Amino acid sequence: MATVLLTGGAGFIGSHTCLVLLEAGHRVVVVDDFSNGSPEALRRVSELAGLEGWRQLAPDRWVAGDGQPALLTLLKGDVRSPRDLDRAFEDREAMGDGGIDAVLHFAGLKAVGESMGQPLRYWDVNVVGAVRLLEAMGRHGCQTLVFSSSATLYGITDRVPIPETAPLQPINPYGYTKAAVERMLADVAASTAGWRIALLRYFNPVGAHPSGRIGEDPNGVPNNLFPFLCQVAAGRRQRLEVFGGDWPTADGTGVRDYLHVMDLAEGHGRALETLQAAPPQLLTLNLGSGRGHSVLELVRSFEATNGLTLPYAVVERRPGDSAISVADPREAERHMGWRTRRSLADICRDGWAWQSANPEGYRGSDRQPGRSLIQVQPVS
Ligand code: UD1
Q1: Would you give the end-to-end CA distance of the chain in angstroms?
Q2: Could you tell me the residue ranges of all domains in the chain?
Q3: Are residues 346 and 260 in contact, defined by beta-carbon separation less than 8 angstroms?
Q4: Mutate to test the pocket of ligand 1, among 36, 172, 204, 293 (most ligand atoms within 8 A of CB)
Q5: 283 — phi, psi (to 5°)?
Q6: 62 C-alpha vs ligand 1 centroid, how far in Å?
Q7: In CA terms, which of 81, 193, 314, 350 is 20 to 30 Å from 34?
Q8: Which residues have C-beta atoms less than 6 Å from ligand 1?
């Protein structure tokens, strides 16, 4: 059993990974500022993992799991704050006398369009946040890190599938910040012996836990195809706009490598185990299925799986998009025995289970009777 710190663990990918880690018997400490995540997500994770006694002990601290230390601890905090990070690394109630064995760093901003309008914010949260985290890891003697990187690093390329050795050519501030952190982590690993680091380049993570209890809950209008499509299905948006019908692909719409978020979450569990079992190393791995699906294939699969009709219209291409992006995922299989197991139909079924049961995402759950999130209990 390891004690693992998840930054951004209340968000979409972090919450699903938190569940996988708890089910594998690890102890988890989460730091999240709730800018794009919710304590309710982790309350539900604790339920799904069968942990008793989710409770709020302070305005910015929650725990679950009987016994001392707790199996799941959630702290409200900012990755740019050394104080918030030290608090997580030193939370004795969360980890007993042992320390944090490994960090999974999910916290960050990820909207491409927003990054072009607010570059400083992206450099601050994504890059300064990573610097502060690495400094805190140094102070607390932790040298195992899994970093959420992105296939966005490959930029616009005709190469199919894309191996990890493809040139890095990001084309927007979001992508530059991911490239900068990858570079920084390579420098850190080269400067000091003992680091175990995995850079995981995600392709297009979608879907939800099959229970429909946790899923993606974007702020405002979704930028990405899958959550947008779910909201069209739920009647929250009138129709889907398909960005371009004249791409050089079989049906003219863009092709992407969609992977189920539970496959991705399991990939993080595998990365953690792989790093812990092997000598210090820096691993760079694509996480994708190796299969491409067009926008219209995704629409048709969603309709067929869920018995729905999705209104859509083909419009202009979106600036900065590429025709095809598909992973070569063989290195992940070779290094950690991981490959995706779930299909496009699984993605569509589970994504809709989440969206239809939670039309407003996690908002509204505190309005359900008996589901108050703000019952602060006295610390004993
Ligand atoms: C986008 C980002 C990428 C980021 C990833 C995860 C861009 C150019 N890329 O990837 O850097 O890592 O999200 O946050 O923004 N589409 C529609 N209609 C829509 C939305 C999307 O037709 O309303 C199409 C797109 O043109 C694309 C496909 O659906 O062909 C997938 O788009 P999206 O879900 O936004 O992901 P990416 O663009 O691949």
Answers
A1: 27
A2: 3-364
A3: yes
A4: 204
A5: -105, 135
A6: 34
A7: 350
A8: 110, 112, 150, 152, 204, 223-225, 228, 241-243, 254, 256, 295, 318, 320-321, 325
Mutate to test the pocket of ligand 1, among 13, 321, 326 (most ligand atoms within 8 A of CB): 321
Joined together, the tokens standing for residue 152 give 């966005």
Q: Quick one: pLDDT at residue 94?
A: 67
**Per residue in 197-244, pLDDT tens?**
999 999 999 999 999 999 999 999 999 999 999 999 999 999 999 999
Helix ranges (DSSP H) in 147-224: 173-191
User: Is the per-residue pLDDT at 159 higher than 50?
Assistant: yes
Topology adopted by domain 3-364? Rossmann fold (3.40.50)
As to burial, measured by CB atoms within 10 angstroms (0-12 exposed, 13-18 middle, 19+ buried), residue 312 is: middle
This prediction's pTM = 0.95
Cis previous bond, 222, omega within 30: no
Nearest to 343 by CA among 206, 162, 164: 206
